[in-house]
Amino acid sequence: MKSKELRAKRAKLIEDARALANGETMTAEQVTQFDAMMAEADQIKGQIDRIEKADAANKELAAGIAARAENNGTSPDEQEENEKRHERVFVAWLRGGIDALAGEDRAFAMQRVQAYQANFKNAGDMGTGTGPGGGYLVPPAFAAQLLVALKEYFTALNLFDEITGGTGADLPWPTNDDTSRRAKIIGENQQVGQGNMSFGQVSLKAFLYATDAILVPWTLMQDSFMDLDAFIRTAIATAFGRTLADDLTIGTGVGMPQGVLTAAAAGPTAKAAELVYDDFVELIHSVNRAYRSGAVFMMNDNSTKALHLLKDNQGRPLWVPSLVTGMPDTFAGYPIEVNESMPDIAAGATPILFGNLKNYKFRMVKQVSVVRLNERYADYLQTGYFGYARFGGGLPSAAQPIKKLVMPGAAGG
User: Is the pTM of this model over 0.90?
Assistant: First the structure.
């Protein structure tokens, strides 16, 4: 079944579930039926997401090859062939290390090892000039596929403003609030006023992230059917994804990135423990209109369940399931981004964000490197690998473009 057909089926299920719970006391049988409908709707949503993520990933990878071909002055076909060679040599290195390679392949691999050392040396935030032995700067296609996998795991990365390249040194970023700045009519020969807009500056730091050792038994490595490249990439993406989801959401900014929830300004306080339509009107209008273009709601899955049956003052459902491929569901007219690192609805919590997430800056410095631990786990008949890269994030804006809804009551009370 295609994505469009699945969306129509899901929308019908949600509509029927709403009709079943339309302001009346539900029997136990109706509650069971309602729960089954919503569970099926969630299952279909998972199918839709998988289909559309795969399609989007293929398009992103193809676009990446085309962009790298343009940068290198080659055709897309030639670039793809070069990257296939990168991958073939990289997989051979993963299986047997540099000693398993000979001739042109060994010379090519040595270039990647040297690039890895240069990448480490030029980090700008490291206390040593060389990286640990056994390292390899991954091929462009591996890095691109890893970023796609990261975005599949932590989908908010698709909404943040991504800054790549450079070194690990602090990145100065100007800040200003011009939401009240206006032009004015002046007379002939009249001096232009200076106004009162002032600029500030913050530093976007990059932090070194490393995975734990990924252990692969020698028996599996000898199996030609094992896609070692994909196995390592998935393991690294999962490890980075779990940590970045938390750090880029609730990170304190001390020794780690400042998460988007931490950085967001406090918005209105909900009127009661149970959210109502008015709370969202207040939250939406707490963000300056200039920053509402492209705005989304961000919340975890538990919070979305609490919002499915909310209606506006005219009795119209606030939650509208999407029927368009690639478009998310909307709530009160704005898209919804589900982020499991957001807190649950509870006393004193800030469970819902609203604003244009492009104002949040996500840093990914240079490329990912993989280190092969040749001997450390030999007595277990295993080879270990770990990946590392530098990431950062912050909200360098004085204009409060993202607000968070505050629940009443003391946290933990």
Answer: no
